[in-house]
Amino acid sequence: MTIVWVAVLLAAVWTAHWGAERLSSPLKKLRSQWGFSVVAGGSFLGLASAAPEIGINTTSAIRGVGDIGLGALLGSNVIAIPIMIVVGYLVTRKKGLSSGGQKTGNDGGRQSRDHAEHRSEQLLRVERGAVSVQAIPYLGIVALFAVLTLPKPWRGLQPLDGWILLVAYLAYLAQALLRGRQAGEKVEWQRKERWMAAAGLGALAIGAYFTVFSTERIVGALGISNIVGGLFITAPVAALPEIFATWYVARSGQVTSAITSVIGDHAVTMTLAFIPLTIIGMPISNLQLFWVTLAFVALMPALYGAFIHLGADRHGFKLWQVIALPAVAAAYVALVVFWVQPFGQQASGDSGQQNSATSQDGQ
C-alpha cells in the first residue's frame, strides 16, 4: 500500500508544479512589461516556483500536520541549491548553448558569445548581481527567521511572526525589483493565458492537498515522524519538477535566470510559505533537528554567494565548487541520520507518551 501512496505523492507534486508553471508565464510577461532585470526577475518568478510549497504548508496547517509542511520547506531549502547548481553545470557543458532568444547584451547574449570559453574553464557563469540582489538579502531573511523561532521566550511560530515575515518578504522583493530596472516592453495578453492561470490555481490546490495526504500515509506506514517525512520524502520529491525547469531554462541559454530563481524560491518559502503555520501557532517539537537544519539552510546560500563572488574572476561556479555543494548536503543528511535523528526519535517517543498520559488523565 505504501507504494500506492508514493505514486500518489509523485502525481500530486507534479500536478502542483504543473499548476505553478501556468502562473509563471503571466509573471514572466509582467517582468518584461515592468522592466525588471534578469537577476531581479528570479526573485519575482520565485512567487510561481514556490507556489507548491505555499500550498503544501497551507494544507498541512488545515489538516493539523504542520510538521510535514515545516520539514518540506526546510528540507527543500537545504537540498535545492546544490541540486540546481549541479543541473545547471551539466546543462551548460553542451556545445553551442542557445541564447534563449534574448538580445545581445543580456544574460542570454553573453552566454552565447562566451560559452565555449566557460566550458574550457569548467565554469558555470552566473552574474555577480546574484550575490547582492538575492543571496545576501536571503541570508538576512534566514537570520530573521532564526531570531523569531529559536530563542526560548518566543520559540516556535506565532501569528505575529507571520506579519514580520510578510514585511521581510516585501522588503526583499522591493529591493530586488528596483535594482537595475529598465524601460518596460509592450506585451500582449491572451484570454487563453488567463484561463490557464485559473486552471493552474486549481491544479495547485489539488496537488498540494494530495501531497500532504499521501505523505501522512507514508510516514504512518514507515513509523517515522511527520517532520522527518517532510524533510526526506516530501522535500526531495517536490524538488523534481524544479530540476526539469532548471534544466529547460538553462538549456535555452538563460543560465543566470535558471540558477538565481532558486534563491527567489527560497525567499518565498522562508517567509510567505510559513504564514499558514504562524496563523495556527506551531511549537517546535524537535529543537535539535530544527536548529541543525536551519544552520544548513543558512550555510547553503552563504556558500552560494561566496562561490559566485570569490570562486572565479568571471563570477560563477568552478567544478570543485559544484561538487562541494552536494557534499555539504550529504554531510547534513549524515549528521541527521547518525546524530540528530536518534535523539529526535527519543524525544518524539517521550512526547507521545506524555500526550497519551495526558489523554488518559483527561478521561
Short note summarizing the structure:
This protein is 79% helix and 2% strand.
CATH architecture: Up-down Bundle
Could you spell the SSE succession in H and E letters? Answer: HHHHHEHHHHHHHEH
Largest sheet: 2 strands, antiparallel
Name the poorly predicted regions: 99-108, 343-363
Please estimate the helix content. Answer: over 70%
Morphology call? globular
Please list the strands of the largest sheet in the order they lie side by side: 1-2
Number of domains: 1
User: Might you state the CATH topology name?
Assistant: A middle domain of Talin 1
Q: On the 0-100 scale, what is the average pLDDT?
A: 76
Number of helices: 13
User: What is the first-to-last residue Cα distance?
Assistant: 34 Å
Per CATH, the superfamily is: NCX, central ion-binding region
**Total number of β-strand segments?**
2
Radius of gyration: 21 Å
Structural class: mainly alpha
Region (Disordered): 96-118
Domain Sodium/calcium exchanger membrane region: 6-174, 195-337
Protein name: Sodium:calcium antiporter
Transmembrane segments: 68-91, 129-150, 156-174, 195-215, 227-250, 262-282, 288-307, 319-340
Describe the structure.
By secondary structure, this protein is mainly alpha-helical. The protein has a single domain, classed as A middle domain of Talin 1 (Up-down Bundle). It contains 13 helices and two strands; from the N terminus they run H-H-H-H-H-E-H-H-H-H-H-H-H-E-H. Helix 6 runs antiparallel to helix 7 and helix 6 runs antiparallel to helix 12. It is globular.
